[in-house]
Amino acid sequence: MAFFLETLLGGLMAGMLYSLVALGFVLIFKASGVFNFAQGAMVLFAALAMARFAEWIPSWTGIDNPIVANIAAFVIAGVIMFVVAWLIERLVLRHLVNQEAATLLMATLGITYFMEGLGQTLFGSDIYKIDVGMPKEPIFVLESMFEGGILVNKEDVIAAAIAAALVAALSLFFQKTSTGRALRAVADDHQAAQSIGIPLNRIWVIVWCVAGVVALVSGMIWGSKLGVQFSLTTVALRALPVVILGGLTSVPGAIIGGLIIGVGEKLSEVFLGPYVGGGIEIWFAYVLALLFLLVRPQGLFGEKIIDRV
Prior knowledge:
Elements: H1 2-32, H2 39-61, H3 66-91, H4 101-123, E1 138-141, E2 150-153, H5 154-176, H6 178-188, H7 190-195, H8 200-226, H9 234-246, H10 251-276, H11 280-295
Antiparallel strand pairs: 1-2
């Protein structure tokens, strides 16, 4: 029982991190109606910015305190992501209003390769470290209930708590604020939203800025765990089954989908892996997503689209 709970907790914590990345996809889709393939590049670019500025600030300013340097690097990287969001809206999206979804999709692909190249040019292509002071040593909990206790990684707990807090804040933002409601209206119909006075360009800037902050937090967490390297863009691919499972238009769906995928990966690797071979954790989520596409393509919480003729 203790081993099962240990695996379950590990899956839940990994699932919260998947939910955080998936949230970036949902944000952009709710605002523009297009799947944002640039989310992985945004995570990488933000992580590179924070990692490099955390290295540069002590040499520029003489600050030896790593906490102060990391906070300053986070703020600078956040400002950079705001500028990137503004430039994307100003130079790309503003010229594609009311275009077909395929056109917007190709635009995000172009943004992906541009940001990857720009990140390599500005910050380099080595493997960099983000050290925000999260403890990495594991601890044992519930020792009074289970013999030997349950092994839990402190870093995973803190990362999951940060992800959960950000996801909860964004959920409230979408449900309770006028900007969140305007964003949903823009996703439903660009022209109709404009006709009732919703400023489409401003909404797109806001949502890309929020997605940039989500990418920064995701990059900080994943960079702390894995190191900042160009393979970090593949983290976004791990979030694809999450948005398929939860629904492209649902913030709660991104949360539930991430938890299901995280738990499913861990449990399948531990309990099914010995029977079907290793590596099941890699492809389990994609098989589950494929089954959902066949049975319920809009996902668990997505809006079912009915076309009347």
